[in-house]
């Protein structure tokens, strides 16, 4: 039987971006990683609902030399630990570290990372979700055949997105209702 998954973009969905010289950028070291409130608990709830949870993220800063692969690995180790401290688990983190114009098949908006995970885990993409805060995330999900969730405001959302939410935690509640208290 095919399984279901949530594919999560990292920056803007699980953690905050960093303001730097008037622009937003991803964290370049573990000290800069700041989780978004409720994100770890939302991952825990998705785990409890039987979904695989994957992070699919473009991190061209490695290819461009803004951070090392070792720094990226440490950022992801901290992310996994912070989600775990909320009772959640990330099943795998898939990363495109190519330069933005490298022409690879993995960099979103191409669906390569999602398709690789779908094959590896025997996923039913039509029953899975791609969650992101940029149009390229939504495009990757659409190309892979998933449902899509845009994190942000309705005025910024791509026109063909399935759900718009202000946060991952809110999206999980919109899709599955409030968490039952035990």
What does this structure look like?
Helix content is 34%, strand content 19%. It is built from 6 helices and 8 strands. The two termini are 30 Å apart. The chain has helices at residues 39-48, 60-64, 69-85, 112-121, 135-144, 168-176; strands at 5-8, 18-20, 23-25, 52-58, 92-96, 129-132, 147-151, 163-165. The strands form 2 sheets. Strands 5-4-1-6-7-8 form a 6-stranded parallel β-sheet, sandwiched between helices. Strands 2-3 form a two-stranded antiparallel sheet. With 182 residues, the chain is α/β, with parallel strands linked by helices. The longest helix is centred in the middle third of the chain and has 17 residues, at 69-85. The model has no long low-confidence stretch (mean pLDDT 95).
Major beta sheet summary:
6 strands, parallel
Radius of gyration based on Cα positions: 15 Å
Write the element-wise H/E pattern from the N-terminal end onward. Answer: EEEHEHHEHEHEEH
Kindly report the average pLDDT value: 95
| Helical percentage | 25-40%
* Beta-strand content bin: 15-25%
The structural class is alpha/beta
Number of strands: 8
Q: Runs with pLDDT <50, length 5+?
A: none
If helices are DSSP runs of H or I spanning 4 or more residues, what is the number of helices?
A: 6
**Strand order in space, largest sheet:** 5-4-1-6-7-8
Name the shape in a single word.
globular
Q: Could you tell me how far the N terminus lies from the C terminus, measured between alpha carbons in angstroms?
A: 30 Å
């Amino acid at each position: 039987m095919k399984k279901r998954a949530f594919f999560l973009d990292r920056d803007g969905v699980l953690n905050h971006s960093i303001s730097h010289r008037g622009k937003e950028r991803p964290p370049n070291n573990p000290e800069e990683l700041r989780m978004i409130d409720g994100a770890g608990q939302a991952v825990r709830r998705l785990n409890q609902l039987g979904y695989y949870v994957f992070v699919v993220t473009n991190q061209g800063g490695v290819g461009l030399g803004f951070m090392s692969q070792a720094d990226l690995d440490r950022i992801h180790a901290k992310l996994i630990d912070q989600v775990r401290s909320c009772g959640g688990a990330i099943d795998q983190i898939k990363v495109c570290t190519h330069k933005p114009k490298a022409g690879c098949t993995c960099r979103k908006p191409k669906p390569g990372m999602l398709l690789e995970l779908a094959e590896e885990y025997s996923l039913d993409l039509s029953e899975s979700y791609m969650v992101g805060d940029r149009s390229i995330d939504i495009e990757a999900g659409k190309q892979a055949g998933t449902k899509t969730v845009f994190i942000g405001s309705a005025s910024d959302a791509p026109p063909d997105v399935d759900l718009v939410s202000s946060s991952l935690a809110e999206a999980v509640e919109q899709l599955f209702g409030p968490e039952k208290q035990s």
